[in-house]
């Protein structure tokens, strides 16, 4: 049961200011006031993507061509859509570190091509020294694993694509 403390509003405003000043996306804090009296605060903000760098227009040179140049292949990033928009994306519910196995050297929870059932552990996200199992939201086949073992992840980042 959380009681209203006069300092809580000022504390939350200070957290929001820290978030902005340090260009953070999320901050979570717990305050214990005594038995059955605590304050748990999570302050988060949507981070805007940096604008794309401007591209210079191609320069035309009037030189004779002996053969037609081969068409340039589109960059790999342009041919793949954003994994976060995939309807099968399983996203991180928190900021932390992703682990694909329960311990170093152990077999990963899932691999590409595995059939998973709803509720099955896909991976672990460690946050504040707590290991949080990330369950499959539905049954399906693992199409892609988008994070590496031990990689930091942001809130809402796509982790796995299920088919």
TrEMBL record:
<keyword id="KW-0092">Biotin</keyword>
<dbReference type="InterPro" id="IPR001882">
    <property type="entry name" value="Biotin_BS"/>
</dbReference>
<keyword id="KW-0275">Fatty acid biosynthesis</keyword>
<comment type="pathway">
    <text>Lipid metabolism; fatty acid biosynthesis.</text>
</comment>
<dbReference type="GO" id="GO:0003989">
    <property type="term" value="F:acetyl-CoA carboxylase activity"/>
</dbReference>
<comment type="function">
    <text>This protein is a component of the acetyl coenzyme A carboxylase complex; first, biotin carboxylase catalyzes the carboxylation of the carrier protein and then the transcarboxylase transfers the carboxyl group to form malonyl-CoA.</text>
</comment>
<feature type="region of interest" description="Disordered">
    <location>
        <begin position="45"/>
        <end position="91"/>
    </location>
</feature>
<dbReference type="InterPro" id="IPR001249">
    <property type="entry name" value="AcCoA_biotinCC"/>
</dbReference>
<dbReference type="InterPro" id="IPR000089">
    <property type="entry name" value="Biotin_lipoyl"/>
</dbReference>
<feature type="domain" description="Lipoyl-binding">
    <location>
        <begin position="87"/>
        <end position="163"/>
    </location>
</feature>
<dbReference type="InterPro" id="IPR011053">
    <property type="entry name" value="Single_hybrid_motif"/>
</dbReference>
<keyword id="KW-0436">Ligase</keyword>
<dbReference type="InterPro" id="IPR050709">
    <property type="entry name" value="Biotin_Carboxyl_Carrier/Decarb"/>
</dbReference>
<keyword id="KW-0444">Lipid biosynthesis</keyword>
<keyword id="KW-0443">Lipid metabolism</keyword>
<dbReference type="Pfam" id="PF00364">
    <property type="entry name" value="Biotin_lipoyl"/>
</dbReference>
<keyword id="KW-0276">Fatty acid metabolism</keyword>
<feature type="compositionally biased region" description="Low complexity">
    <location>
        <begin position="57"/>
        <end position="78"/>
    </location>
</feature>
<protein>
    <recommendedName>
        <fullName>Biotin carboxyl carrier protein of acetyl-CoA carboxylase</fullName>
    </recommendedName>
</protein>
